[in-house]
Amino acid sequence: MKITLIKACAPSEFKKYKKKRGGPPQSLFSAAAATPAHHQLQMIDETVQKLNPKKINADLVVLFFSTPDAIHGYQLADQFRARGIQVVLGGLHPTFMPEEAAKHSDAVMTGECENIWQELLADAESKQLKPFYKGTSADLDHVAPYPVDLIPHQIYDGFWSVLVSRGCRHKCSFCLVPGMLGKTRYRPIPAIIEEIKNLKTNWLELHADNLTDDRDYALALFKALEPLNINWVGETTIKIADDPELLEAAARSGLKYILIGIETPSKSALKYSGKGFIKAENIKAQIERIHQHGIVVDSAAILGFDEHGPEIFEESVEFFNDVEVDVCVPVIMIPFPGSRVFQQLDQEGRILTRDWSKYDGTHAVYEPKGMTPSELEKGATDFYYKFNSTGKYMKRKLRQIKQLGTTTALYI
Ligand code: SF4
């Protein structure tokens, strides 16, 4: 069977951010890895590649997308179906909005693909797709490496992604990870090492939603990575800075860039959103300890929590600058359908639009509590310019050159 897997991505600020900071998308590559070799497989990641839908000639198209790309994904799906091609929709948005997605597809796949993928492909082959396929938590002992020959790593500027774990035990109000992936599962370390050894690049994301949650596993992984001489990016919580042995081991194994959700200086917003374990007063010292290992710290500044009033913009600029986060983009809190915060705002009648293309972090899609929607949008734009004002930018670059080296300082 001819199968085309597509990560749909509409032109937007969200796309620009993903293109700059992202690597191979998990949903797309997981499905490709689970596809038996006898199928004829094509993959397109619209984040970094151009898609011409008219040139797709397949028996089955599977589109993956998150909320900001949903309308675009549906438009593509409608085009393929009009040509008689079977269409399945999967990924974050279809998982949490399956009835909506069903209007544009022959089948909707929710959750993780591995446990239902063979059944879905067999049904597509016999043209008997069922309307819904409900994925369950996959056993990561048996996932295959991501294919490297369908979208080469050069397309991601030499960057690649290797799966380490799925899921997170925290339940942050705005996050879809707990609902989509459930509790944390880890891949066996030898499988990860083998996959990395076979890659033609040494610049990687070790993909995990909370990489160091299991300390023993993380220490064993870092030890096994050390001889490979790789440079890697990871995502975890600020707690790594409070564990000198773990931080040192991560740095020795090649950690160069860390994504940490610090989100906001507002204690009450952190507490409400489920991130009470972050103590704003400790962040500066924690980041300094990470910098001592030459590691770049990246955290978004989320704006528009109910606990935020108009003073939050100035406060956030000063906070993120003062604690010396290296990379920080302002994001208007996105109430993704399926998240706890969407449910709350919807119940309170505060969702202003269901135009999913506006759920990209630059639009106020809900009625904020402490300001107007236009104040929120303006405040987020102002944050960007104030955080990157000439004075602050130059000071930051000089500090980064000293702490992280010139190449890294110029790269970020
Ligand atoms: S935001 Fe991070 S810590 Fe919170 S639930 Fe999502 S993955 Fe876990």
Broad CATH class of the largest domain:
Alpha Beta
Strand content: 15-25%
Quaternary form = single chain
Question: How are strands sequenced across the largest beta sheet?
Answer: 2-1-3-4-5-6
Output the structural class: alpha/beta
What's the main sheet like? Answer: 6 strands, parallel
Which residues form runs of ≥5 with pLDDT under 50? none
Which cofactors or ions or other ligands sit in this model? iron/sulfur cluster
From the N-terminal CA to the C-terminal CA, the straight-line distance is: 43 Å
Shape: globular
Task: Describe the 3D structure.
With 412 residues, the chain is of the alpha/beta class. It has 2 domains: 2-134, Rossmann fold; 146-411, tm_1862 like domain (pyruvate-formate lyase- activating enzyme), CATH 3.80.30. It is 38% helix and 16% strand. The protein is built from 17 helices and 15 strands. α9 runs parallel beside α10 and α13 (312-322) packs parallel to α15. The chain starts with a strand and ends with a helix. Bound molecules: iron/sulfur cluster. Iron/sulfur cluster binds next to α7. Residues 168, 170-172, 175, 177-178, 209-210, 237, 261 line the site of iron/sulfur cluster (SF4).
Give a short overview.
The chain has 412 residues and is of the alpha/beta class. Helices cover 38% and strands 16% of the residues.
